[in-house]
Amino acid sequence: MNDLHWDGLDQLRRSHQVRTLAALCAAGREFVIVGGAVRDALLGRTPADLDVIVVGDFDAGLDAVTGHLGRRPADIGDEHQRTHRFVWRGVSIDLACSLGNLDEDLGRRDFTINALALRLAEFGAVSDAMVDRHDGIAHLEAGQLVAIAAANIAADPLRTLRAARYMAQLGFEVEPRTREFVSENAPRLAGVAAERVANEWQAVLAGAYWRSALDFAWRVELGFMSAGARATSAPTAAWEAVEGDVELAGRLAAVLLEVGLDEDVDGLVTALVAGRWPRPLARTAARAAVWSQSSADDGGLAALTLIDAEAARIAGRLARGLGLSALSLEPQAARAVEPRWVTGDDLLAVGCEPGPQLGELLREAAIGQITERWSSAESALGWAQGRARESR
């Protein structure tokens, strides 16, 4: 059960931006805060931004805001709802035209906890200004994610994945009926733009409750990287190796180890990108997962750090947590990003010609530095210059 923070909602109402919007309410138009800001304030979280709808004459409301700001909020080009965005004293605010009256607008939203509204024309107690037509407050208290209607989830298939995102961010459970709605519409996620899906996957992975959210996503077959791939939410060595970390590549690499690696790095990247993960993130995570299980010697591991020091660092941490032999990757990766003891200019200065031989000598010097073959830059430079003279 969650204790709701009505004082947080009252604090939101007392903010400069909200007080000013309240003052701009007039006959024929009303500003109403909806969705995430109301939800987060009640949960004791600081709202990241404000979604405000204009009930009534939208153009008059937009003109009133423009007159106060001295500039017109930018039209974001939303094809479903007229929406203008502006930043006001560091707060991003979306000003949208209501879809019908207030009740109709709220009834089109995804989940009950996002169908809460705070009427700014109401100056009495904050509880009197609240609009809750779908028991969103009760579901907030219960920590439940409840869809308003099956049709609302079908209207935008991305809402299936948003269920997992809210689980990850809030730690809520999805009630059985909503789970069915999500599962029924999961196949339609394939028709959503890759960028939108990628953003949701990253938000899921970034949440404090990402493990249980991913478990839910796999159980309802929202996809991830391959059909039937599903990790357990029970702690394992791979999960625990990244416990407390906030970097997405480390978490994703742990997921890959949990699912089981039947492919090489390129195969994993291909599978992740097919699931609409961003390629750079997929590549780093896939490398980290595969490299953590490498049995190469120190020189071979050092060569990996030259390819991707960040992936190697994550791989080393995973290897340490799993008790694998590649654990030396972690300190090696730290050395891989240090300034090079031997540079191309150093070797050109002693007569080494540009070309493959120069490149190979620089690579050998870098690996030697990473594996601590020498104790100082002077020693490394002396070795490299000697080799360069020998090859002339």
How would you describe what is shown here?
This protein is of the alpha+beta class and 392 residues long. It folds into 4 domains: 6-142, Beta Polymerase, domain 2, CATH 3.30.460.10; 144-216, Hydrophobic Seed Protein (Orthogonal Bundle); 224-337, no CATH class; 344-391, no CATH class. Helices cover 54% and strands 10% of the residues. The chain has a 7-stranded mixed sheet. A two-stranded parallel sheet has the order 8-9. Helix 18 (309-322) runs antiparallel to helix 19 (329-336) and helix 21 runs antiparallel to helix 22. The radius of gyration is 27 Å and the shape is elongated. The protein starts with 5 loop residues before the first helix and ends with a helix.
Number of helices: 22
Number of domains: 4
Architecture of the largest domain in CATH?
A: 2-Layer Sandwich
Q: Unreliable stretches, pLDDT < 50, 5 or more residues?
A: 226-235
Rg to the nearest angstrom?
Answer: 27 Å
What is the beta-strand fraction? 5-15%
By CATH, the topology of the largest domain is Beta Polymerase, domain 2
What's the overall average pLDDT, rounded?
Answer: 89
Q: Quick one: how many beta strands?
A: 9
| Helical proportion, percent range | 40-55%
Strand order of the largest sheet: 3-4-5-2-1-6-7
Can you summarize the main beta sheet?
7 strands, mixed
Broad structural category: alpha+beta
